[in-house]
Design a protein that fits this description.
heterodimer, A: mainly beta, 7-stranded mixed sheet, B: mainly beta, 11 strands, globular
Chain lengths: 115, 113
């Protein structure tokens, strides 16, 4: 199993550009989520999905869109990049079916710089 | 008040020392608790779940105090490889998905030779 994979690893964007961060998992996990991590802020939830076709907003959803057409994939789209979106983005997944299953497994992250 | 609060440290300890981290959470309805480890410029990785009766995994011991709403992590016989940031994680069971997790900002540990 590859676990949770993310691409790209690094990206530089100009203000106003759009892009999609890819996330895939091969563990057949129902629950997937996107976080951003900024210094001193901890991980903050952007969007999450409890299964294919179902998504919802987290704590900081503005400026981001998601979709979940398959169990495996959960891409994150930046609609019009802003410098405030410079961050490290992590995708995570879990079974979510029991209290122990709430533990999430993370991808290696995407480092995004918006100029 | 943050939902999950941790002392950011840094904690600098010599090899072989015992070190303890505490974490407090604000939502008394929280049901699930975890400690994650994050190495520099890497993704968080699950270290251990925290159970009501307390649990141990080798040199690591986790405790939960529901009355005081805090979680602790004890590391015995510290190794250089234990140097990392330790994240306290709680399932607050607030509105929205019952499977959401809230992460503390982390406590930085450096084990010195």
């Amino acid at each position: 199993n590859a676990g949770v994979t993310q691409t790209p690893k690094f990206q530089v964007l100009k203000t106003g550009q759009s892009m999609t961060l890819q996330c895939a998992q091969d563990m057949n996990h129902e629950y997937m989520s996107w976080y951003r991590q900024d210094p001193g802020m901890g991980l903050r939830l952007i969007h999450y999905s409890v299964g294919a076709g179902i998504t919802d907003q987290g704590e900081v959803p503005n400026g981001y869109n998601v979709s979940r057409s398959t169990t495996e994939d959960f891409p994150l789209r930046l609609l019009s990049a802003a410098p405030s979106q410079t961050s490290v983005y992590f995708c995570a997944s879990s079974t979510g079916t029991t209290s122990g299953g709430l533990a999430q497994y993370f991808g290696p992250g995407t480092r995004l710089l918006v100029l | 008040r943050k939902e999950v609060e941790q002392d950011p440290g840094p904690f600098n300890v010599p090899e072989g020392a015992t070190v303890a981290f505490n974490c407090t959470y604000s939502n008394s309805a929280s049901q699930s608790f975890f400690w994650y480890r994050q190495d520099c410029r890497k993704e968080p990785k699950l270290l251990m779940s925290v159970y009501s009766s307390g649990n141990e995994d080798g040199r690591f011991t986790a405790q939960l105090n529901r009355a005081s709403q805090y979680i602790s992590l004890l590391i015995r016989d510290s190794k250089l490889s234990d140097s990392a940031t330790y994240l306290c994680v709680v399932n607050p069971r607030t509105s929205g998905s019952a499977r959401q997790l809230t992460f503390g900002s982390g406590t930085q540990l450096t084990v010195l030779p």
